[in-house]
Specification:
Mean pLDDT: 90
CATH architecture: Orthogonal Bundle
Strand content: 5-15%
Distance between the termini: 15 Å
CATH class: Mainly Alpha
Largest sheet: 3 strands, antiparallel
Shape: globular
Low-confidence stretches: none
Order of helices and strands: HEHHEEEEH
Structural class: alpha+beta
CATH topology: Arc Repressor Mutant, subunit A
Number of domains: 1
């Protein structure tokens, strides 16, 4: 699997984790460390460290699919993944329900 496809699958896996784990949590919030730990590609490989996980989460935020609870910066320092919480946005739900077209950079079986 090429690296681009692997990253697409990891992003999809993170969205799936936010959807499924968030459904059982008050407000739908899921910890960033949980996203990094549960995201896996087709070969069962997780993101290559916190930096890659943060980058993938950042992509999902930039595309408006997930939102972060509170501030990313606390006292001038970035909070670690462990202290960050995310949930699906309306756009994220729409993608999950396949109500909007696929988004480049996120694996979508409608394109297979």
């Amino acid at each position: 699997m090429d690296e681009q496809k692997r990253l697409e699958k990891l992003r999809r896996s993170m969205l799936t984790a936010v959807r499924i784990i968030g459904a059982s949590k008050d407000g739908g919030w899921v910890g960033g460390a949980v996203l990094a730990d549960t995201a896996k590609d087709d070969h069962g490989q997780k993101p290559a460290g916190d930096e890659q996980a943060i980058s993938l989460i950042g992509d999902l935020q930039a595309w408006g699919l997930i939102e972060e609870q509170g501030q990313q910066v606390l006292g001038g320092e970035k909070k670690s993944l462990r202290h960050r919480q995310f949930r699906l946005t309306k756009k994220g739900w729409s993608l999950w329900l396949q109500e909007i077209p696929p988004i480049a950079g996120i694996y979508d079986d409608r394109l297979d």
